[in-house]
Amino acid sequence: MSHTRRCLFLTFATAGVIGVFTLAADSPAGHRPRYTNDGLLEVPRDFRSWVFVGANLSPQYRSKAAQTKQPAGELETKPGTKNDTFHNIYINPESYAVFLRTGTFPDPTMLVMEVFRAEDKDSGGVLAGGQFEGKRISLDAAVKDRNRPGGGVPWAYYSFDLDKESKALRPAEAFPDASCYDCHLKHASKDNVWVQFYPALRDPN
Ligand code: HEC
Fold it and tell me: Which end of the chain is flanked by fewer CB atoms within 10 Å, N or C?
């Protein structure tokens, strides 16, 4: 190898090594559920950069909804009223990739549902109609993790308390199966997840 070629080779090789290290440092170790020492689910902080799978407007749950404890966002309203809510649903990107390839949700998988009150009056008075996402009213998570503290059925469900004073979100305890799991198991179209309501899972391009 000539001197110039060797220099070039070394330059590219070094750049390659730096590139690999930079990539490794940039790519997160994956979005896995994390728990506190007493088994509460930590708030998945970066979920807004995950895959956005669907947005539902004021869904009402028919099946025994009145008898079970609902996440704060499930209001007793009819679409088109002042109490409309938007439900934004996200999935961690690694599980989305596996779902597209295999049609199944790997373990672990996390879905987050952020609920906003629909508002129709903006401060500037520009809107002549329609609604936008106003105040956030709840944040829930569905987590498939057989290794979670306490074990049990494959999926566990959580609601993070929105602390009104500090806006800080605190880790959450899993709900009893009868509160959440049972309805998801019975009525959701794929492995406890409401794929029937989420375009990015139901009709992937
Ligand atoms: C009576 C049925 C029912 C019960 C009980 C129920 N859910 Fe759901 N859940 C739904 C439906 C329907 C959707 C999808 C529509 C929506 O809300 O946007 C959903 C969606 C979700 C999602 C989005 C991810 C997913 O799994 O598809 C989360 C997170 C969630 N629910 C959490 C909870 C929690 C926490 C509880 C218990 C406190 C609960 N759910 C109880 C019917 C139910």
Answer: C
Whether ligand 1 lies within 6 angstroms of the CB of 194 is answered as: yes
Q: Which atom of ligand 1 is nearest to the CA of 68?
A: 5
**20-54 per-position pLDDT tens digit:** 444 444 434 579 999 999 999 999 989 999 999 99
For residue 69, the model assigns a pLDDT of 47
Place of tokens 């492995």: 191
Q: Is 140 in the pocket of ligand 1 (CB under 6 A)?
A: yes
What is the spatial distance between Cα 118 and Cα 103, in angstroms, rounded to a whole number?
33
The two most distant CA atoms of the chain are separated, in Å, by 80
Does residue 175 have its Cβ closer than 6 Å to ligand 1?
yes
Q: Which of 34, 31, 28, 30 shows the shortest CA–CA distance to 158?
A: 34
Which residues fall within 8 angstroms of residue 179, CB to CB, at 6 or more apart? 68, 69, 157
